[in-house]
Amino acid sequence: MDMQKLIEKSISIAPEEFYLIESDLFIQLSNMHEKPGFVVAFLELSSWMGTSLRSGVWTYYEAAEREAIHKTIEYLHQFAPSEELSKMYVLGNHDYHDAAYQTDFNYPQAWLEESELIDQWIFENEKEIILFLQNILRMHIGCL
User: Fold this and answer.
1) How far is Cα 78 from Cα 44, in angstroms, rounded to an integer?
2) pLDDT value, residue 89
3) Per-residue confidence at 2, pLDDT binned at 50, 70, 90?
């Protein structure tokens, strides 16, 4: 399916069915050579939510690129539908790549506790996150 049709389907599908098309969209957007800020935000928020639901959000922050996280934070500060979404995303933004943690991965307990809070919030607000992902696409539909 071409990108335009994929986006149109993504923004018109019910949030409960977004998962049916999200992976195809994710692959298409990931394969872009030059990713505008909204694409980075879409990919990162999709990964953030998906990783949280599958294995815990701390694994997202552990693997994510710092630059992508910072671009997503900037995007959220501009466009997030609620301050809470930005706050929850930022809450887990710690330096998991610090050399002090690379031998034993013994992250501070506070980070892990925050991750549990974020995971619970994502679980309770999955629909809000999906609606925002759809809105990102809706706002930038002509830019791809």
Assistant:
1) 16
2) 98
3) confident
- HEC string of the chain equals CCHHHHHHHHHHCCHHHCHHHHHHHHHHHHCCCCCCHHHHHHHHHHHHHHHHHHHCHHHHHHHCCHHHHHHHHHHHHHHCCCHHHHHHHHHCCCCCCCHHHCCCCCCCHHHHHHHHHHHHHHHHCHHHHHHHHHHHHHHCHHHC
| Ramachandran region, residue 4 (left: φ > 0; alpha: ψ -120 to 50; beta: rest) | alpha
| Helix orientation angle between 37-55 and 19-30, rounded to the nearest 10 degrees | 130
For the cut 90, the answer to whether the pLDDT of residue 120 exceeds it is: yes
For the chain, percent of residues with pLDDT exceeding 90: 85
Q: Find tokens 């809070």 and name the residue.
A: 117
> Which is it for the CA torsion 127, 49, 56, 97, positive or negative?
negative
Residue range 108-128: mean pLDDT, rounded:
96
